[in-house]
Fold each of these.
Amino acid sequence: MTRLRRIVRDNGLGLAFGGLFLATLIGQAFAGLAQFNEQQVAQGSEPVSLPDYLTSSSFAVDVVENWQSEYLQFFLYVFATVWLVQRGSPESKELDQAGPESDEDQRVGPHADDDSPGWARVGGWRTLVFSRSLGLVMGVIFLLCWGVQSLAGWAAYNSEQLGQHQDPVSWAGYLAAPDFWSRTFQNWQSEMLAVGSMAVLSVYLRQRGSPESKPVGAAHDDTGQTG
Amino acid sequence: MGSVRVLFVAYLSLIGLGLVYFALLGLLGR
């Protein structure tokens, strides 16, 4: 196997979804531009070019409001699955393992293996941070995205206000505006439904060969098994 | 593992650069 082929095979998931992300973002750019210009014409304003749209707060808020909810989803899922279990679900741990588990189970400190990461072995604050780094990073990205949504949404809201000859609002004013919370909740609700569905539907349904599913022949009652 | 590390850094960079870009669009009020 050539070096390039091996790199592509080793990184199939990361490369495929990175490519799909870029392709769908381009799709959003063109569809968003068409929608934006429909509104411009309806308001009696001039349509804008693609570069103008890609550097607009309207494009920014439409992208980043979706980003924040996805990272919220993973942040909540990573933390919730430490403490909450779901009987029969491959997304759940076994029913008696709720909680952060023992250092031995987690191969931390003196229980680390030869090839364990340094921060798993070293103890103290570094092991404490590394032990929660996946959820922490997802949580930080969520908060940053939500903050950026508020900035871009504020700018987009005010340019709409000005287009309709209405007064702009302050950033604090925007945080209390229905537009901010409507954009926020419409994204959050879908994430909660999707995560709950994954936990519950995977009890009785199977996908042969997927690590997101139990083995096809696993009992419905089996919890914490992946195929 | 070299290529995996590159992908890890690429994903975090993409998110970071995207956030800076979108934050600037908001702050500049475009």
Amino acid sequence: MSGEMLLAISYGSVMILGGSFIWWHIKNYYDD
Amino acid sequence: MNIFLAALIISMASYLAIGWYAGRKVKNLDDYYVAGRNAPTLLIVGTLVASFMSTNAFLGEMGMSYQGHGPLIVIMTGVNCLGYIFGALFFGRYLRRSRVLTVPEFFGQRFQSRRLQSLAGLTIVIGLTCYLMAVTWGVSLIVSKVTEMPAWASIVLVWIGYTGFTLYSGSRGVILTDTVMFLLFSSVALVALYYIIQSGGGWYVSIEQLAVFQDKPGIISWHGVIGEDSNWKTSTDALIWALILGIAWGIVVAVSPWQTSRYLMAKNEHVVIRSACGASIAMFLLYLINSYAAAAVNLSNPNIDPPEGVMIWVAMNLMPAILGAMLVCGILAAGLSSASTFLSLIGFSASNDIFQRAKNPETQLKSTRYTIIIIGLVVVTLCLILPSNIFWITYFAGPVFASSWGVVAFMSIWSSRITEAGAFWGMLTGFLGNIAANLLGVFTDVKLPVYLDPILLGSACSFIAVFTVSAVGTVSVESKLFRERLHRLPEKDKNRTEIARTLLWPKAMIVIGLVVMALMINFYAKPYHYALQKNSESQSELRP
């Protein structure tokens, strides 16, 4: 895989991982 | 009168009008310091991003992208964005629960320490005054360039502008003007991208040409321009630099006063989390657009000097006059919004944290306004008498809070063992460690490796001081109780409707992440490699 492809995937992944973490956190912290 | 000056006057007048409108609603200290603690998500997102993105983003970082280092800015931003998430979840919402007026006051109450509050206030006054001077110089430089006004007149005009709408309305006005400015510079950045790409021959042609751009080879490769003439010799050096700076600036957005103080204004805890998601999304998209837009300007003119003037050149040469004037106003807005936030924070800290707060709220309100005037006068005088090329003072101005406050801020929430003395010495050593490392780089030939960045070095000093000093002391009962109170979840934040609304934001982040990933693969990575392939094929055909 090229560096540019890896950059594209990892840049998008930042939002995906960040969003998933917040979603999980809210569910566990506020929604219990 | 040229169109840039006219647009500038109209935009300044609009900000003053908004400030006047917001100022009429200021009735008490809460209104002035923390916008009545009633701000919705849009206003907090607006003020978070507008305070963070100053002229540096539109001049310095876009100049860097123009020179061929845009991909590094993108990598750095990817890491930096996460600072909003961790900052809001692990510090910001607890800060809001304390219901203080300023962040130094939070430290003061958390550790029952007046000296810690004064020290935190002092770091704000020193650090943000330097930052405010840098922004004032940056904005006035643009004003004098596009309007041909003398430098001193531009400095005074800019100072009158941001002081005007900050003084009367305090935070109520600042968050409104910040949001208007955020919307302005975000939309003009998009419009500018369109014109830049069009003048480069369209999206695919631009990518193909940049992929094989001879003047700055590798300008849009994943690591940008590297080699003997670049700041980074290898792609690994470049990657390490971007990741470490990303972490360092992530700590800045997580704990710095001009970011976290915005959470004190949020209507509730859910607004804190939603606005952190919103700010993260906005930064994620804006830096991506700006970095590639600045790189693409090379196809129209690869010799802009200084490179920091790239967007001003775009405004004056690639866009229709009226849109160009709006772009200049957008760049100025980025600077003015940071300036107004800095000025208000310095005023609040000087009058509330360094000096004792007056018992009568009306007297305190008056004294805060007088303090803002005095500080504004000091800043404008310094800007007029000091040479504006002493940009080195800005090296430490922003990031110093990451070193000074980072460890203490997170440990004040998550550690039951940190003592008042530990927090005090941790903050002081972090501050001094950062400044010493920066001065070493400015006044000597010593070049620290990237993993010893002043932000990280200062943070390490702070951590060691907190750890060792706290180990020999005891935590007071009041501090312990205060921390326990911070961890009590407010009943009203358990509301199901609010939770459902908050959950929409992380879902939006996931969708945006997927869309950006798909767009970057199809409109950047694939055409980039297609262009390289085409180029190598044509090269081999030319060979005998």
Amino acid sequence: MAGALSLSGLVKHFGDEVAVDGIDLDVREGEFFSLLGASGCGKTTTLRMIAGFERPDAGTIHLDGRSLVEVPPHRRPVNTVFQSYALFPFLDVFENVAFGLRYQKAGRDEVRRRVGQALELVQLGSMTKRKPHQLSGGQQQRVALARALVLEPTVLLLDEPMGALDAKLRKQLQVELRSLQRLVGTTFVYVTHDQEEALTMSDRVAVLRDGKVLQVGTPGEVYSQPSGVHVATFLGTANLWEATVRAIGPEGLTCTIGEHRLTVAKTEWDPAVGEVVQVMARPERVEVSPLAPGEDVGPAPRTGPTGCGRG
Amino acid sequence: MRAVTFRGAHTTVTLDCAGLSLQADVPNVLGEPPLWLTTGSELVATLAPSALRLLPG
């Protein structure tokens, strides 16, 4: 089972609106990859183009080196799980999961075996005769997942699959879905607007805005080393200060924020002296301690191995 | 210290360091904020260079 997906120069318009504006992405085989962004950023449209539900205006989509653009949706080795589950209400759990196999004219024994395996994977082996309305939201989503996995897709696309679930169930399913992905080894492309969800489950995350990819990286990279202000503020809380670069030395960059002087470690992006920049610090990276009796550190916060300030 | 918000594993505080406002997450001790973390107390905030990140302006 491979599953390396490559998007290049992908563009999609709806009338005058640009939904996807030149997206380049490489998703690795067996990876849990998330497209993360606010509503209208182009993540679902990108997913729908991979699935074949939308045709790109420009760009290419390759799966394991093979172009998918001219392949109709039902011929692509991909499957999609939707937020709305899209189960057949008149079919029981077994028949919902078996539907795709029967469409492929699989034999009776094979259907029984593969549906049984898929339902065991999602821990619903004892509920085969239930109808969707007799299941909780989380159980319905598991049926949708089993129905998608039973066809053994090379890539599984998931469009906000936990969006309709309550917070507690969502957290539980996040862990289960991540374990399941590791077990089956299928490439997962997961669309979400939930930062915590993306950071919890993904091997890598692409942060999107206005149809463009702002940054791709591991959860740790996009959180700790955001490429810009939008990524920094979209992924959790960030202290942000406008600063001016005053000097560049071996120990780092000296910046001023109003009256305050800070030393910032060098990064791969180094501005020029005099340039106005933003300085970011995550709240958990600010060390706070009580002021010792008689201690006077001066009125201003400074940086450095021993730098400190009064709060 | 201007504001204190208990968040379970840590407590979020908003500090005013001579006009520079900053938010910090202080780890709780056995589920409780450290005793010295009270509104109005004088605190020291340390920002290591490695804790800071430069972003395009």
